[in-house]
DNA sequence: GCAAAAGTGTTAACTTTACACCCATGT
DNA sequence: ACATGGGTGTAAAGTTAACACTTTTGC
């Protein structure tokens, strides 16, 4: 393997080592639209291109932790629960040589506060409509596309949609979120019936103020109750 | 990054490079039991240990192709369609240094013919009951366990079970396969009704010979028809 | 003739779908 | 008073789940 080219002490087994990167596909939801978090790169290769937040991992860094760090450095966002999406390994996907990348996936309550790169690797971080992505660096467009597919599949069987909304939300917001992500219309009455049948929303005793029509009730997602039910084998399904 | 330690020409951007491995979780089904394909290692580290078929990839090798090659070299099996399972990246998972591994997943018609290592990296290849795995090299037990989970989820929504059976099979074989993988009993009449309702099995006009009871009819999986239906949005679900 | 597995239908409970009008609020 | 989105129920169709006996074959 390549390390034999370096002048190392000859030991019984050569020391191995990986260079690899992580890329983050982060979803938000705003103005009835699904958004993906992008950065503008400030370093070669692909300087000035738009890209997913991603970078090389350190040698002594766990792959999951690398994703956390890279997301923070490039966007200022921290403490997000990310799931591994897929490893992308085409041999020419990186112009500087063989680098495989592990893509991570998360959905968050969209915010613009604190959305600033912490290092100079990125010029800026911004939200982009998920179905109107520009040309992206590396194979990031393929990665983002794959993320959207996984989001669509996941949202049907896991209650991740609530992570995209603010703490308190209306049933219509949930309804519109599902319609936007699944890209199909869903009967309002049937949707409400189903979502309420799980008995996993806490009805707040207040209505959304300042709307020019009948004020909707507000709800909260009851995560604790969901976790308990899930342990007993309950499966959320829309 | 580490390559700076080597005496390379100084260029504007350092050349990057990954060392990583692939590991294959291959399922077979035999004697009513789910099996996983293992090897006995013939090289350090973990010499003489049992392990999943896996090895380092070459620099100029696509990640998916590496999985094909490694499986062939260690077990003699080729031409299997493998899907990526997960990337495992704990920093200490490989005793020689930082190596991330990409696990691949496939299910095949179990055979002992041609089940022989082609290189000397493995002493032998053999099938092992999936719910009675021995201690395995590296983090391979965790990888195998993850593979079993994915198999259970996948078999409910995709007709991959037929890939585990021989070309011609009986309905009882399918029924027992599902019971074995999902580890629960399934009503015989309801199961047969459902599986026949898809209209995706071709009934052969012959019965299985040489059985000491009523001879069962044989069927074939109609893959072409399934692929066409799938394009139109059909979802197989047990 | 008996052991072993194959094969077969009906009913009740539940889930899903389709569908249209009145209500509360701000301007 | 009107425009806007909020909120509600029922019936028909389809799906799932529970359940037991007869048939064929080799020994």
Write the layout of secondary structure elements.
The structure is a homodimer of 238-residue chains.
Chain A: E1 20-30, E2 33-41, E3 50-51, E4 54-56, H1 63-75, E5 83-88, E6 100-107, E7 122-129, H2 140-157, H3 171-182, H4 188-197, E8 201-207, E9 217-221, H5 223-231
Parallel strand pairs in A: 1-6
Antiparallel strand pairs in A: 1-2, 1-4, 2-3, 2-7, 5-6, 8-9
Chain A binds a DNA duplex (27 and 27 nucleotides) through residues 170-172, 187-190, 192-194, 210-217.
Structural write-up:
- The structure is a homodimer of 238-residue chains.
- Chain A has 238 residues and is of the alpha+beta class.
- The first copy, chain A, has 2 domains: 18-154, Alpha-Beta Complex (Nucleoside Triphosphate Pyrophosphohydrolase), CATH 3.90.79; 158-231, Winged helix-like DNA-binding domain superfamily/Winged helix DNA-binding domain (Arc Repressor Mutant, subunit A, Orthogonal Bundle).
- In chain A, 26% of the residues lie in helices and 25% in strands.
- Chain A has 5 helices and 9 strands, in the order ββββαβββαααββα.
- Chain A has helices at residues 63-75, 140-157, 171-182, 188-197, 223-231; strands spanning 20-30, 33-41, 50-51, 54-56, 83-88, 100-107, 122-129, 201-207, 217-221.
- The longest helix of chain A is centred in the middle third of the chain and has 18 residues, at 140-157.
- Chain A is elongated and about 65 Å long.
- The termini of chain A are far apart.
- At the A-B interface, β5 of A face β5 of B.
- The structure holds a DNA duplex (27 and 27 nucleotides).
